[in-house]
Amino acid sequence: MSGTLVLVRHGQSDWNLKNLFTGWKNPELTELGVQEANTGGKALADYGIKFDIAFTSDLKRAQDTLKIILDNVGQPGLETIKDQALNERDYGDLSGLNKDDARAKWGEEQVHIWRRSYDVPPPGGESLRDTGARVWPYYLTEILPRVLRGEKVLVAAHGNSLRSLVMVLDRLTKEQILGVNLATGVPMVYKLNADSTVASKEVLGDMSGAH
């Protein structure tokens, strides 16, 4: 019997609110972000799942989201592994810049390509493919074996690190993944087959808040 993999994007951060490229920078959650994490945690508590282990990134907004979720499901002391393999995509020279200012500097079309293309990185940063190149091996070696052993695994991470995982799990093409946005704080519950393919996927909450 294979286990369950739950993916959650962190709640809104201060820099999401200010429309800044965040990447590997470390802003705090906003009040709304804390609320989103609590809502996601309550949805998981209502779902009735208990986790065997949690994974998160090296960045505070994902770690804080995870802590809030674990408090809500009554597992505040759960073993947690933190690794920068799960970090958000590195936006390089764009990190810390307002998205409108970046458009004024490089042009609307160029910034759109950096944000939404699959394999064109911003200057000094990572493309979605580059992000996947560190997320996928980590998933295959550290996370997937636990799920296949029947464990229930929670991963709290970021929009792009999770998009690269969703791309593989949902078998999306590099064109299809470009249109996928993950809502903040909304858990996605995957049940996996013994061959690591997806048996079922449930989204616990409202995906309309994706941005």
From TrEMBL:
It comes from Rhizobium grahamii. Substrate binds at residues 9-16, 22-23, 61, 88-91, 99, 115-116, 159-160. The gene is gpmA. It is an enzyme of class 5 (isomerase). GO terms for biological process: gluconeogenesis; glycolytic process. The keyword Isomerase applies. PROSITE patterns: PG_MUTASE. The active site is at residues 10, 88. InterPro entries: His_Pase_superF_clade-1 (IPR013078), His_PPase_superfam (IPR029033), PG/BPGM_mutase_AS (IPR001345), Phosphogly_mut1 (IPR005952). Pfam families: His_Phos_1. One of its GO terms (molecular function) is phosphoglycerate mutase activity. Catalyzes the interconversion of 2-phosphoglycerate and 3-phosphoglycerate. PANTHER family: PHOSPHOGLYCERATE MUTASE. This is 2,3-bisphosphoglycerate-dependent phosphoglycerate mutase. Pathway: Carbohydrate degradation; glycolysis; pyruvate from D-glyceraldehyde 3-phosphate: step 3/5. Homodimer. Keywords: Gluconeogenesis, Glycolysis, Isomerase. The lineage of its organism: Bacteria, Pseudomonadati, Pseudomonadota, Alphaproteobacteria, Hyphomicrobiales.
